[in-house]
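Chapter summary example.
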Amino acid sequence: MVRPSHGDARPGMWRREAGTVVRRVAPLLEQATAPFAIIAGLQIPPVPTEWAPHSHSLHELVWVRGGTLTSRVADRVFTVSEGQGLWMPAGLVHGGRATAGAKFYEAFFAPDRAPFAFEEPQAIAMTPLLESLLTHLSRADLDAAARTRAESVVFDVLRPSERQLVLQLPGDPRIDAIAEALLDDPADCRSLEEWARRLGISDRTVTRAFRHATGLSFAQWRQVLRVHRALTLLSEGLDVATVSEALGYAQPSTFIASFRRVMGTTPGAYFDAADSSSGDVRNPVLPVQNS
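The structure predicted for these 291 residues follows.
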C-alpha cells in the first residue's frame, strides 16, 4: 500500500513475487569497521529477497551484478542495475529488494573516518576501478597500510552516477489509490479520465495533484514507473517483447520508445553499456550475513 509516509519506509514497491524471502537486518555495530573506514562483502540470494525497513549506524553502498536492486526510502523508490550502486546515508530508514541470483555487494563506511559523505541516497557510478577496490577491501589478509591506501583511493573515485533513476511517490490521499494500483500492476492502462471518474474527482484535480506531488504529469509518472519495473524484468533475462506485454504496451516499439524517453537509450543499448562498463571483477569476496 502506498500512503503518505512521513518518514515511514516500507519495502513494498511492486507486487511481491512468489517465493520471496523477507529478511530482517541485524544491527551493525559501528565498531565493526574499527580501525578501518570501509568494510565490504557479498551475498547471493538464491530467491527474490526483501529486506524489511531498517537503518544502519554506518553509511552503506550496495550494488548488484546479474540483477537489480530496488530500495524504498520514505516516498521515493530507487532502482539500480548493473554498473550502478546505491549510497544510503547512516541513520536513514529504508527497505530493499533484490532479484533472485543477483550478486549483492555491500560496503559500509564509518562516518567518523570518512573524509566526505553524501547526505541523500543516490545512485553511484560503479566503475571497474571502484568495484575492484571495494572487492579488494573485503579481503581479510590486508595489512593496515595496504588497507589505508586502498581506502584513500576509494574516496578519490567515489562519484554519483550521471543517471539517477528515482520514482517519487505521491503521498497525496487524493491520488494514492492510483499509485497503489500501478505499483501492484504497472500494466494497468486506465486513463487519467477513467481514474478521475473512479475516484469521484475532476481530471484537473488528478493532473494538478500529480504535478504538485511528483513534478511529473500522470502519463510521465506512469512511464517512469514502468521503466523501473522494466529494468528488473529485463535483468532477469526476459526479452523486450515479453516485458513490453507485461507492462501493458501495445507493441514492443512503443515500449522501446518509452524506455528511451526516460533513460536516453534503448533497453538493449542500456544493458550492453552496463555489461561493458562493469568489467569482470574476480577478486575473492567474503560472504556477509543478514545485511
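To summarize the output: Confidence is low (pLDDT under 50) at residues 1-12, 280-291.
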